[in-house]
Amino acid sequence: MNKLTLEVTETQQLSPLVKRFRFEHPDGSALPLFSGGAHITVEMPEGELIRRNSYSLVSDPYDGSGYEIAVRREDTGRGGSRYMHEKVSEGDLITVSAPKNLFQLDLRAKKHILIAGGIGITPFLSQLRQLDLAQAPFELHYAARSRKEAAGLAMLPEAAHIHIHISEEGKRMDLGEILDGQPLGTHVYTCGPDGLIKAVADQAARLNWPTSSVHSEAFTAPPPGEPFEVTIASTGQKVRVKADQSLLEALEAAGIEIDYSCRGGACGRCETSVTSCEGRILHHDHWLSDDERAEQTKIMPCMSRFKGTRLELDL
Amino acid sequence: MSMTEFSPSIESRPTYAPLTSHGAAPAIMVADAAGAAALADLAASDSSVMDKAHVVLVAPTAEGPSQIQSLRPLAVHVTPDLDAAGPMLKQLLGTARMGTQLFLAGSEGLMGHMSALATAEGLPLDAIQMEHRGTIARRMQCVHCKGITDNVTTDPFTCSHCGLTLFVRDHFSRRLGAFQGVCVDAETPGVVPDSVEIRP
Asked: From which domain of life does this come (chain B) (predicted)?
């Protein structure tokens, strides 16, 4: 995997829970450009543990002078975002992956509608710069509970086609009004809580939108949970997964390399076959189908956990 | 005449399914003389599909327009050929709203040409319903000079633009809406296989 060691050159508290970080090459050289909606995976070493979380890039895709991310602090998470907030400061060196994109714009669209809920605003910050440069018609809808929590406000330009919906101020987002009557060839993109993604998909279906015009990104950091143990089928080795560790991270710590990309249950790269399962797989990914989940013969180690007596992986 | 069954081929080769109704949703339909029969079958399965339908007929038979009128669509637009149908379709797409259904019926040339126009306007390919009727003639792009030769029925054929002898491939460009024709005697100039009728 293509990695970059970068220097933290700026940090900024955008809201009580969200902090922005800027990374630049230590010798000032230009970084690879990316496309709107791309993310990087950030390594967070803590003791023996290396956590890796993926964050959307919020900076200009055509500006190679640095990468910027905005991290929401999840105090009930397994510690990745807390590490970013508490341990990372200006001048530190940090290892990140090269940008990858699982949420790119369909540039054939006649119009783009971007719908963000809360911290889901992040991938759209780079996309709207790309759309501006392409002079492509778009509208962005950003929903947040309160103005204080809406970290995206500081990073969004003021424009007629950028709409802010603050529910505390009684301006709830009306998806029917947003989607109804859009020109043929419009594509909609949603990033935010699962409920919002589902609500947009449902509304689009009611209006007879083709499903392939409806895009979403839901990947989040892996959830913590109860510790569990897995068995490696080829060697019989047992690997213990701590409460604040993902299965993928535990396997990596045990020297078992698995191909990965998003580390958020969206891309499908780390899909692993299960050869024996006595218990229940707690699927947290957005990759496997409902049938595949029910069969319990596949697991996405980046997100999913296990509760039971024995889980054997085909590794 | 019913729907054509094409022999299995590479993934690239488009396949077509019978048109199915989504009810009285706004619709744009494009058909040639043979494809008009597919629209009639569609309307027979659910007459409400015509309630909000604009039908573009390309080079229809003399009685074609009145046959389609009898299905009671919202409007019928008659065009002499595909070149004239293109701007008409673009105009209809340009004023249509999301939820509008697109139906194409007739030759592969018509469906390829019109679906390429529609995808360039942002409509996903899998949202376009297509049913093949009539001629199996193909719309071919010469991969060398990029010229399009319509109504190709033999393999190999002569590029109408640069004159090369081209092999009819099943490799299809969705962006261009055309099959790809490749020089058949590039390695052995002048050694050209006998020309045969293309098969479904």
From this structure: Bacteria
Gyration radius from chain B CA atoms: 18
- Residue appearing with tokens 């990104």: A217
Q: Which CATH superfamily is domain A3-97 in?
A: Translation factors (2.40.30.10)
CA distance B89 to B138: 21
Q: How many CB pairs under 8 A join A and B?
A: 53
pLDDT in tens, B107-166: 999 999 999 999 999 899 888 999 999 999 999 999 999 999 999 999 999 999 999 999
Residue B2 has pLDDT above 80, yes or no: no
β pairing state of A272-282 and A298-299: antiparallel
SS3 B76: strand
Contacts of B100 in chain A (CB under 8 A): 184
Q: How many domains in chain B?
A: 2
Of A106, A183, A187, the CB nearest to B97: A183
Query: Are B156 and B127 in the same domain?
Result: no
Name the residue among A76, A83, A152 with its Cα closest to residue A115: A152
Specify the 3-state DSSP secondary structure of A272: strand
Among the listed residues A26, A154, A31, the one whose alpha carbon sits nearest the alpha carbon of residue A90:
A26
Choose among A74, A62, A89: nearest CA to A17. A74
Residues of A in contact with B122 (CB under 8 A): 106, 108-111, 184-187, 213
Global pTM reads 0.88
Contact B175/A at CB under 8 A:
no
Task: Say how far apart CA B87 and CA A103 lie, in whole Å.
Answer: 33
Instruction: For residues A230 and A238, give the distance between their C-alpha atoms in angstroms, rounded to a whole number.
Output: 6
